[in-house]
User: Which sequence fits this backbone?
């Protein structure tokens, strides 16, 4: 049997396509981060928590939601819940969850994040770090840590044998959905006037506003959109991974690395790097599996050494 | 125009000296009132936060990976003391030294960038160290290295098994580190650092090789963080993965933020508050995470200068 | 080439992506003179400046300063040789007092200031010299004021004092008068005249009154190339200069 | 002194919070009630503390519970790293440690102390139970998905030894980093190996994700058996039967075994804030505390931990959950272990009706024999 | 004092402004008539820039009244003020680094018909045409100034506020800008100018206001300039 660097080509192709699937999540998440960083100058540490909320939102839309009666009303050991029923399918979730979570994001931006506009971006990082802790803590309190099941939508269960691998239909769908959304985002931001407003507002919001553009509204919408992208990724993730409060916590660190490698704030950079690193990680799993959790960071260190602005970054 | 007179400037310095004496007095008396093992752990974190603050407060570089130096110090010290039988009085400096070496490499890689990029680079590097801690055989993976023996040291002069003796041993280490940082800040070197933070291109145009100054500050900070880690390994008798995990780096930031970035005493106060929360609120489970998050958010929104920073600003002191 | 020239640029060229900002410029700055670089906007003056002070690397050409070939040196090293620049936007250390601003520059005499174990009180011996410098530029009363709180014109003076603290042989000033009110312009012009004694000054400036009254030599740059060179009378009579720079109302 | 303080040093906020957490406090309180000692004038209380899966925090908390809150016994302590740190402190303070939620067999091996009594499962039991029973039942060829750290590697090594001893073969393994979200690459290799059994030498979220994704890639339908080496009932509950069906694994406890376990479990469920059925760790906490209290009552005073543990070792264990057994000289509690198979959704008749029994491993076979022990307390 | 001859386009009454705690404008009163070029003079720090920013709604705290075309704008956010037809060319130029020259130029939305077309702009500032695809901040200082002016000429706003538009420009270009301002005036634009370069201001202004310490302290028309020269010398130290 012919081999490529000691691997049968089937295995290699299989891993490459799996890498692409993972890359889809990286791309969506890093894109949202890049949009938010590029436009608000905020490193959104809460992005992982938002991704998680997207997945939970899909779960609630399907199964309804149990809202707790506060413990001081119900007594410590007997938490009582009120059930709000709902049976909306995955497809509805894919549409509604980003909107709902995006709205929550916009609310948080208005009441909290807007207050630190114009400060050093360290403060944005710290504020969203705190937000992430609060959100994840609250979800853990309510739902424990092992998570909730979410099944693959009916139309997409099963899979196809590609010869070199068994490709579940759902995963193929994830790749497609992610590419479409990423490209649409890129187009809007880089190829329309809206994009130049956004970029200019990052640099000097008060001046852009003095040109007649409602910058605060635009910023809020942008944050909402970045957050909605993460929620969208969360809905996509729900059937594959467990719907868990901490599902975004570790992922987010990797996604940060993706954004840094691509070049902070670069839309195209984050998309390309997201997919690219998914593939590189897939290959690492073949050749040196233990290092797969860290290969992204090694690449990040190397990239920062050679091209400190990231692969697609503009010089400051 | 708010010119400050010379005598006022001296007054500011006096406030620092008074605060220093008060702090020392409180710490000397504390073990008779508060649980000494808690105090020791908090002291280690305080030293760590002070080391971190040297970078963020006085060079303007926010490291999001300082756990890597603490972890390195802790692992090396724990390994030498536990597996190699090296006496603690040598294992601690050894941990500190290795952390310094890691600091040289990490610093050389990361100080080329500023702002958020610097933070991200340090975060990535600390993930690399975490990986090593997970993979290298001597660290024993998730079990960690334990127990680090609390034995008699200095030829039997000091018994680390005795709560008060080990406490004062740790206090001496903390205070030495603290004084060193204080001196660094108030040295000719510190003046140059300050000018770099204020206006880097201007410092360059005056002929300062700013990268060397930043690297030096980075290594100093790493070294002291390593010392804090090594001492902590002795105090809690183990070194484990959580010492190098990124959430620990986040906690260091939290401590410094709560106390006041760029203040001398802020990180100490912050470290005590956060450690106390972890230990005394531990029955609350996840609520601790939520509370920490709330503190983060409140600090950033309302008390950006931190507790000590706010007090100092209110009374026009320099603390 | 004569040793009378403290700074010599030969064939200095800088190309940015698809655009040549400075094109084969030969410049000799005579020791002890005040030399002005003028020209229309976008002529390449600031770029030239950045090349000479090594904030940019030339695409081609050679720069000799005081007998050293500095073409490939780093800007901090150039500064160490006594060639110090100011910035177009005032460059002070905002949250340090005027005295501290100057003292940081004076610290350079101590060599490498890596002595983190020493108290900064050792720097007090520099205070006398720092006060002297502040006095020279008329800032004695501002000694303990933080730079950020000083009026604009005074900041420029502080910047000059800081630069003087390095005792530079060659000072490069980029538009020192930009944004100054009339009184400040006179004050700074006098100051430049005063500190030029015993050193060389190269400056970029649009204020023709200042250029005319201060400079010994003027080089006019357009489109990255030298158009004319000489004293004010000579240059301002040049019809090319009139057309490209001065406009109808002048000369 | 007739006051006993029980310290529940636990993960209250993260991955083990469901398998231990506040539920272990509930179990301990049930044990106190069932011991009937409060009626005899004893004052017994439980304090829970969150070790956040950090050994340093765990050690400090333990020290503080003992010094300041006068804790006499520390229970549960899931996460082997923390358990080992706590064991050292408890020994130094001469109290009692009953790690009912920690898996490391080192607790009764190289790191055993005269103050530790290890209840419920350990890595040896899990490896031997699952590996032995499945191989004997015909699953001869194995492939491992192993978490790349000490716990995973130890599980894999132990299981490999059993599989080989039973005449099976190991075709290969894949090491994955801790907390991996995506297992598809590893599963693909496992699938390609054509092994009959895919052993999961990992825990918690890693186990759940690998099982979920194995179902997605059609591995179970394709005829391969997935054998998670450590699985809790809360994990099965979280995955849902559709995904979890057909898994084979070892457990020391299942709530629906007999009338005794059922009655106890229903009581527990009512008290548990999340209304979960008890996990084996929580059952162990109950049984451990119950036995401890018996011993303390005999000794008359909890302050000398080693003395209490000696008494625990002298008394035979007997409780409705684990039945009769003994505490061995190395601190290991012996009781039977069971090989379960997860039911299909059709087979499940009522809530939490998840397991069916495949095989029972008798108490004397379930744990590492003393003859193989490297515990210094075992004299050879 | 001299006021606008006809109905003022802009009427500022008792305008006060603060930066944080510091009170900068202490009640500024002036007006600008339609089609006029009015220049604000004053020393560094007198509050000229702050006045423009307050009119534009760009300072956090302000009080008093600013009527534009008869409507009160003091309580409006700056985006609405811009839409009403006021445009500012800021002192610090405000060129965006992340946008190229073309994007910078096209950034401010057109608020009314009647602005300059791109061709007219390039005629005025040929440098810009050459550098159209450069990054905005890669332009030389003077080119950035041209870009900043050109940018607001496109929008068609009938009221332009120019803050030291000649700073850092070569004499030829300054002459050009003078010509431009006169031409804009012919086309019916109204201009409020802040200038240090008195020579330049004198070549375009109809009326002058002099500011000191956050107040208007004097005003006179172009015809009376000669008579007021002595006073001006003391005000400005010219
Ligand atoms: N980094 C750069 N990349 C591309 N082009 C540049 C860069 N820096 C300067 N330029 C271009 O080079 C030319 C010369 O610029 P320079 O700043 O030297 O002009 P200047 O003579 O200082 O003009 P001014 O008097 O307006 O300040 C300008 O056309 C400018 O757009
Ligand atoms: N952002 C700010 N924060 C605090 N004070 C400010 C700020 N901007 C300006 N000032 C102060 O407000 C006063 C008026 O400033 P302004 O910029 O309006 O003056 P100006 O007349 O435009 O002067 P110049 O001729 O120097 O541009 C000055 O004393 C200045 O120091
Ligand atoms: Mg220039
Ligand atoms: Mg101004």
Assistant:
């Amino acid at each position: 049997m012919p081999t490529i660097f000691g691997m049968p080509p089937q295995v290699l192709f299989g891993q490459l396509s799996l890498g692409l699937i993972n890359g889809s999540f990286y791309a969506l998440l890093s894109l949202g981060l890049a949009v938010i960083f590029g436009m608000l100058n905020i490193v959104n540490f809460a992005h992982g928590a938002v991704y998680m909320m997207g997945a939970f939102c899909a779960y609630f839309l399907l199964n309804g939601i149990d809202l707790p009666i506060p413990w001081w009303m119900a007594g410590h050991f007997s938490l009582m819940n009120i059930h709000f029923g709902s049976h909306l399918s995955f497809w509805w979730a894919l549409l509604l969850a980003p909107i709902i979570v995006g709205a929550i994001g916009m609310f948080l931006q208005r009441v909290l994040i807007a207050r630190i506009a114009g400060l050093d971006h360290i403060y944005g990082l710290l504020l969203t770090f705190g937000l992430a802790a609060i959100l994840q803590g609250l979800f853990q309190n309510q739902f424990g840590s092992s998570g909730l099941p979410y099944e693959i939508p009916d139309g997409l269960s099963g899979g196809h044998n590609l010869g070199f691998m068994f490709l579940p239909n759902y995963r193929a769908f994830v790749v497609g959905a992610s590419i479409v959304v990423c490209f649409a985002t890129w187009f809007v931001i880089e190829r329309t006037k809206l994009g130049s407003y956004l970029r200019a507002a990052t640099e000097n919001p008060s001046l852009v506003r003095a040109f007649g553009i409602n910058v605060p509204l635009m910023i809020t919408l942008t944050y909402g959109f970045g957050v909605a992208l993460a929620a969208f990724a969360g809905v996509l993730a729900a059937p594959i991974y467990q719907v868990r409060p901490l599902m975004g916590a570790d992922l987010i660190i990797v996604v940060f690395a993706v954004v840094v490698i691509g070049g902070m704030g670069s839309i195209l950079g984050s998309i390309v790097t997201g997919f690219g690193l998914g593939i590189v990680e897939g290959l690492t799993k073949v050749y040196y599996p233990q290092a797969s959790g860290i290969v992204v960071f090694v690449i990040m260190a190397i990239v920062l050494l050679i091209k400190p602005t990231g692969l697609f970054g503009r010089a400051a | 125009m708010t010119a400050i007179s010379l005598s006022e400037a001296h007054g500011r310095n006096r406030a620092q000296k008074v605060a220093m004496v008060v702090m020392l007095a409180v710490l000397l008396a504390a073990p008779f009132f508060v649980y000494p093992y808690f105090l020791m752990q908090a002291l280690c974190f305080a030293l760590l936060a002070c080391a971190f603050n040297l970078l963020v407060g006085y060079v303007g570089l926010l490291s999001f990976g300082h756990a890597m130096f603490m972890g390195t110090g802790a692992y090396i010290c724990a390994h030498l003391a536990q597996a190699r039988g090296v006496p603690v009085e040598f294992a601690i400096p050894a941990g500190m030294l290795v952390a310094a070496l890691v600091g040289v490499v990490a610093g050389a890689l990361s100080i080329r960038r500023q702002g958020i990029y610097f933070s991200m680079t340090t975060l990535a590097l600390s993930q690399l160290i975490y990986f090593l801690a997970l993979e290298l055989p001597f660290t024993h993976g998730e079990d960690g290295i334990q127990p680090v023996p609390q034995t008699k040291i200095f030829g039997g002069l000091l018994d680390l098994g005795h709560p008060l003796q080990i406490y004062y041993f740790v206090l001496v280490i903390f205070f030495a580190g603290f004084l060193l940082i204080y001196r660094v800040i108030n040295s000719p070197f510190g003046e140059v650092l300050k000018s770099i933070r204020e206006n880097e291109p201007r410092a360059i145009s005056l002929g300062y090789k700013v990268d060397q100054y930043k690297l030096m500050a980075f290594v100093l900070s790493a070294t002291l963080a390593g010392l804090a880690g090594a001492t902590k390994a002795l105090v809690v008798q183990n070194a484990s993965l959580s010492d190098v995990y990124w959430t620990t780096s986040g906690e260091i930031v939290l401590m410094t933020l709560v106390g006041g970035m760029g203040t001398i005493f802020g990180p100490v106060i912050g470290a005590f508050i956060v450690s106390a929360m972890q230990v005394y609120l531990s029955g609350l489970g996840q609520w601790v995470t939520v509370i920490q998050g709330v503190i983060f958010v409140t600090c950033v929104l309302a008390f950006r200068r931190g507790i000590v920073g706010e007090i100092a600003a209110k009374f026009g002191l320099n603390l | 080439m004569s040793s009378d020239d403290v700074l010599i640029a030969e064939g200095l060229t800088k190309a940015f992506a698809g655009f040549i900002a400075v094109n084969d410029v030969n410049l000799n700055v005579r020791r002890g003179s005040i030399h002005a670089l003028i020209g229309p906007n976008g002529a390449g003056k600031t770029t030239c400046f950045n090349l000479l002070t090594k904030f940019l690397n030339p695409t081609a050409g050679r720069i000799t300063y005081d007998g050293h070939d500095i073409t490939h040196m780093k800007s901090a090293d150039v500064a160490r040789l006594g060639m110090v620049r100011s910035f177009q936007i005032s460059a002070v250390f905002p949250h340090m007092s005027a005295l501290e601003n100057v003292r940081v520059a004076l610290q350079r005499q101590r060599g490498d200031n890596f002595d983190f174990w020493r108290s900064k009180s050792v720097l007090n011996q520099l205070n006398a010299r720092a006060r002297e410098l502040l006095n020279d530029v008329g800032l004695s009363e501002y000694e303990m004021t933080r730079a950020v709180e000083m009026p604009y014109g005074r900041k420029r003076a502080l910047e000059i004092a800081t630069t003087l603290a390095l005792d530079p042989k060659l000072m490069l000033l980029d538009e020192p008068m930009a944004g100054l009110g009339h009184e400040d312009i006179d004050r700074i012009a006098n100051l430049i005249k005063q500190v030029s004694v015993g050193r060389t000054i190269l400056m970029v400036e649009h204020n023709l009154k200042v250029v005319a009254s201060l400079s010994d030599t003027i080089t006019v740059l357009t489109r990255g190339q030298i158009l004319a060179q000489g004293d004010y009378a000579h240059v301002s009579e040049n019809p090319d200069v009139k057309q490209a720079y001065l406009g109808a109302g002048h000369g | 002194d007739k006051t006993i303080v029980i310290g529940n040093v636990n993960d209250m906020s993260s991955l083990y919070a469901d398998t231990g957490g506040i539920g272990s406090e509930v179990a301990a309180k049930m044990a106190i009630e069932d011991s009937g000692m409060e009626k005899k004038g004893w004052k017994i209380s439980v304090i829970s503390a969150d070790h956040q899966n950090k050994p340093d925090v765990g050690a400090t908390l333990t020290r503080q519970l003992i010094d300041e809150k006068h804790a006499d016994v520390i229970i549960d302590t899931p996460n082997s790293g923390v358990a080992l740190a706590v064991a050292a402190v408890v020994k130094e303070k001469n109290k009692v440690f009953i790690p009912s939620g920690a898996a490391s067999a080192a607790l009764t091996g190289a790191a055993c102390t005269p103050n530790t009594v290890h209840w419920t499962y350990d890595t040896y039991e899990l490896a031997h139970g699952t590996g032995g029973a499945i191989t004997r039942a015909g699953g001869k060829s194995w492939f491992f998905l192993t978490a790349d750290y000490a716990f995973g590697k130890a599980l894999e090594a132990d299981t490999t030894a059993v599989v080989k001893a039973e005449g099976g073969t190991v075709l290969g393994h894949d090491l994955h980093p801790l907390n991996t979200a995506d297992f598809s690459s590893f599963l693909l290799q496992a699938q390609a190996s054509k092994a009959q059994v895919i052993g999961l030498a990992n825990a918690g979220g890693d186990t759940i994700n690998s099982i979920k994704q194995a179902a997605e890639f059609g591995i179970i339908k394709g005829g391969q058996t997935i054998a998670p080496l450590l699985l809790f009932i809360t994990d099965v509950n979280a995955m849902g039967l559709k995904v979890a069906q057909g898994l084979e694994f070892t457990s020391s406890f299942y709530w629906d075994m007999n009338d005794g376990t059922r009655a106890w479990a229903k009581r527990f469920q009512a008290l548990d804030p999340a209304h979960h059925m008890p996990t084996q760790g929580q059952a162990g906490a109950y049984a451990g505390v119950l036995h401890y209290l018996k011993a303390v009552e005999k000794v008359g005073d909890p302050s000398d931990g080693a003395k209490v543990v000696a008494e625990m070792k002298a008394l035979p264990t007997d409780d409705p959950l684990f039945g009769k057994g003994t505490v061995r000289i190395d601190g290991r509690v012996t009781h039977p272990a069971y090989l379960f198979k997860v039911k299909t959704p059709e087979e499940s008749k009522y809530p939490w009706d998840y397991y069916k029994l495949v095989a029972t491993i008798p108490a004397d076979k379930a744990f590492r024999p003393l003859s193989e022990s490297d515990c210094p307390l075992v004299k050879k | 004092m001299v006021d606008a001859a006809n109905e003022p386009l802009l009427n500022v009454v008792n305008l006060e402004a603060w930066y944080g705690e510091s009170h900068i404008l202490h009640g500024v009163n002036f007006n600008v008539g339609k089609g006029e070029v009015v220049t604000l003079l004053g020393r560094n720090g007198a509050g000229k820039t702050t006045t423009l920013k307050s009119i534009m709604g760009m300072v956090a705290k302000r009080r008093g009244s600013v009527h534009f075309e008869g409507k009160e704008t003091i309580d409006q956010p700056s985006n609405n003020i811009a839409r009403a037809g006021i445009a500012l060319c800021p002192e610090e130029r405000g060129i965006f680094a992340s946008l190229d020259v073309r994007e910078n130029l096209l950034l401010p939305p057109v608020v009314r018909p009647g602005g300059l077309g791109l061709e007219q702009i390039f005629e005025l500032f040929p440098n810009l045409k050459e550098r159209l695809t450069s990054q905005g901040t890669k332009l030389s200082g003077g080119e950035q100034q041209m870009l900043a002016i050109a940018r607001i000429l496109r929008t068609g706003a009938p009221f332009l506020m120019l803050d030291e538009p000649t700073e850092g420009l070569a004499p030829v270009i300054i002459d050009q800008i003078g010509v431009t301002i006169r031409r804009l005036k012919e086309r019916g634009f109204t201009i409020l100018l802040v200038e240090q370069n008195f020579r330049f201001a004198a070549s375009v202004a109809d009326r002058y206001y002099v500011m000191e310490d956050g107040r208007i302290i004097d005003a006179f028309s172009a015809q009376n300039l000669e008579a007021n020269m002595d006073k001006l010398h003391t005000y400005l130290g010219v």
